[in-house]
Write a structure and sequence with these properties.
Alpha-Beta Plaits, 4-stranded antiparallel beta sheet, Rossmann fold, 10 helices, 5-stranded parallel beta sheet, single chain, alpha/beta, 305 residues, 19% strand
Length: 305
């Protein structure tokens, strides 16, 4: 259900980050945006791409106004590097170059608009910003439909590989480890055969709920298909394995006690660790976890009832 604003509630200002090294030009835009109402704008500034990335680590924004010529990056690479790091934030390019080929390349790769400095009316720019934000919201809404599993609300296989591969690139650059867990439900076919597909769906949803309850909202949780699930736990490493597996086991026990089903929910699991200095594709990590899961499963004999 959509939230409606209280009549007395003041709408939050649109948060902009201007990435621009020309201080005089930044000052002009900052003053003009500060005078805008309905909506109001709150502008932050960064002089380099590195400074912008540092700011975004701690501060959410609604849209980026990005100059392509910065002290630490130039041309299309500026947009490419930004979009790799923050694909979730809409970007409007503000460039000093009237270069149609460059503009098309940026827009083709996801930029919401490309404006040449000095060639636009400020009121028009403010309207472009509002339209760009709404377009981006619609794009995210449609994309979410294509990468989300209808039954569980987790990511589907496509979403897992798309988002997981992106996180691996970030982990390589930041030299951070991650854990990948692979699960499948034990006796799932027997649950379907004996109790019906509606009960099978309920078991899948219970498993999804356990994963959501165990892992962080920032982790990537997915139903890969059938009764197979995967979790990419960001910024987690081998010392976290015992904590996470014990937490999941405790929540599984509690779920089985509360559910009062004619069968216990159970699963087999495998895991592997991503090490940034031993770069690996997500497909290879998943295969390693799958082999460990298979070994685990060989030692389990589970009946659904």
């Amino acid at each position: 259900m959509e939230k409606t604003l209280d009549p007395g509630t003041t709408p939050q200002p649109v948060r902009l980050l201007l990435v621009e090294d020309d201080q005089a030009y930044s000052r002009i835009l900052s003053v003009r945006f500060s005078r805008m109402t309905e909506p109001a704008f709150l502008m932050h500034e960064a002089r380099t791409l590195k400074e912008a990335f540092r700011f975004l680590q701690k501060n959410p924004v609604d849209l980026i106004l990005l100059d392509l010529t910065l002290p630490d990056s130039r041309g299309f690479d500026t947009y490419r590097l930004f979009s790799l790091e923050h694909p979730e934030i809409p970007v409007v390019i503000l460039s000093g170059f009237d270069d149609e080929a460059l503009a098309l390349e940026c827009v083709r790769h996801g930029a919401q608009d490309y404006q040449v400095k000095g060639r636009f009316d400020f009121q028009v720019l403010a309207r472009f910003v509002r339209f760009a934000m709404e377009r981006h919201r619609q794009q995210l809404r449609f994309k979410a439909l294509s990468i989300t599993d209808d039954l569980t609300g987790l990511y589907n296989r496509r979403g897992f590989f798309e988002l997981g591969s992106h996180q691996i690139k970030i982990a390589e650059r930041s030299e951070r480890e991650m854990l990948l867990f692979y699960f499948d439900l034990d006796g799932f076919k027997a649950i379907n055969d004996r109790f019906g597909h509606a009960e099978g769906d309920a078991a899948l949803m219970r498993m999804a709920a356990l994963l959501k309850d165990t892992f962080r909202s920032s982790d990537i949780l997915a139903r890969l298909g059938g009764d197979e699930f995967a979790v990419l736990a960001l910024e987690a490493s081998e010392p976290h394995v015992q904590l996470l597996t014990q937490r999941l086991a405790d929540k599984l026990q509690s779920s089985n006690e509360k559910a009062q089903k004619p069968y216990p929910l159970a699963f087999s699991s495998g895991r592997t660790c991503f090490y940034p200095k031993q770069s690996s594709l997500l497909e290879n990590l998943l295969a390693d976890a799958d082999r460990m899961l298979y070994e685990h499963k060989k030692h389990r004999t589970v009946s659904p009832a």
